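Marked as duplicate of an earlier ticket. Keeping the data here for the record.
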Amino acid sequence: MSKRNRFSMPGAAFSGVSRRSVVKAGIAIPFAALLARPAGVFAQQAGFDYYISTTGSNSNSGTEGSPWALSALQSKGSTIAGKRIGLLPGTYVAPTGASEGDYLRPVVNIVGGSAAAHTIVESVVPRAAIITAWNGSGYNTYVPAPIGTLNQYVTIRGLTITRVVRKAIIIGNSNVVVEDCEIYDIDQRREPNYGGIDNTEGIRIEDYSGGSSPSLSGIVVRNCEIHDIYNAQGTGTYVSHADYNASGIKIYRTRGLLVEYCTIYNTNEGVFAKTYTGGTTVRYCHFHNLVSATRRLGGNANTTGLSTYVHNNFFYNVTQYYDAEVDQATTHNLYIYNNTAYANRSLDDAGGFYLRSASNGLVRLYNNIVYVDTNASTGWLGIGITDRNNNPAQFGVLDYNRYGGQFRNWASNMYTSIATWRTAMAAAGGAEGHSAAGDPLFVSRGANTPANYKLQAGSPCIGAGRTGGVSSGSAVDQGCWTAGVVQIGSDSDASVVRPNPPTLQGVS
């Protein structure tokens, strides 16, 4: 199924309906065929407790035939706590923000549920319920997100959020899940007198009560496509730090965030931890056309002891300013393993990992493939690792990686062979003793398609990695497509290989 028509439904009445068709020209085009279905159609399919529509009223009963308005997600209080609420297809214009100066309070603040029963807000037809701040001639809200929650135990599923100004979703409490959503076209330059503001993001995670510790937990962002996000400094060309602080996901005061099966592109930072955040896991994601895919996830103030994991991700043409797909300053154990990073164009500093550590031995980098095609016509052809501190001892483990290109440390020394690189990194744990340089033999390369970067039969990367990056570990493949991995990126990304992500428990 093509990406544009992936929301088409079986049957003539649903044929050809897509979520993009309702935001053509920036304003709603009615889902006439869908909304004309007899009462009970959606209920038979999905079993929602209550319904909301673009023409609903909070004086209605909340049934499919008598749905509520979008604001019911906040105003109905305990009536909807722990219930599953279906948003019927159409474009929902967010109400005018009650307090434009309160950037952490969403316009629609979803009622929380309980540990036993989340309040679930879900598009009845995946991604066909579209939420926007655009009213046809202007924006109803500039500062707040149109939707989100300051409450615990909420799941937001299958929405499309587009044409907003500063942020799409705000998460201000623990135990919140955002999954199967598409978030795009967030542009702070729409805001009047925007010049002094730069924080713009698809999803912002921050404890509304403030503080200086990672107080939020139990938050998951899964199977989302997040793209085209610009801030007040943005030029849209992703050069020379121009869109700094424009991010797919931005995190404050949070521990243990899980981001998985997401596709994030066309902004500055993919997943960006600003303050008091640690213990994040980013896995099975597809990042492209960014400055840094993951930034500062290694931890910052007051996060000691919260280990961070970045694994089984595919990075394509990420770096354009920082020489890193993974730009990390770590204050605790940071595990970066089984990722594939590829670049094939002229970049000033095309590269893999930009790392700095507060103490020796905290960084563990192993089983990765970092490959830069030598058709780049300017700048260095490829940097496997930039050692930010010029201190190889920061690596507790640095081994079992595969490189194509060159290497350098922060002193800008270039190493054109794996042998000279090993000598330079002699103080690192493992010191790249089992790493190698050369063609990893992908199925194919060049296209921005994660499945192309699986390994051919006979690839030198098959079985060349080790669990934990140490010689006593079991043999595993290098790169992101290890045994059992069936999806990289969101299921709306045309490059993925399966329609839905598996349900995984825990963080590895």
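See parent ticket for discussion. The chain has one domain: 18-476.
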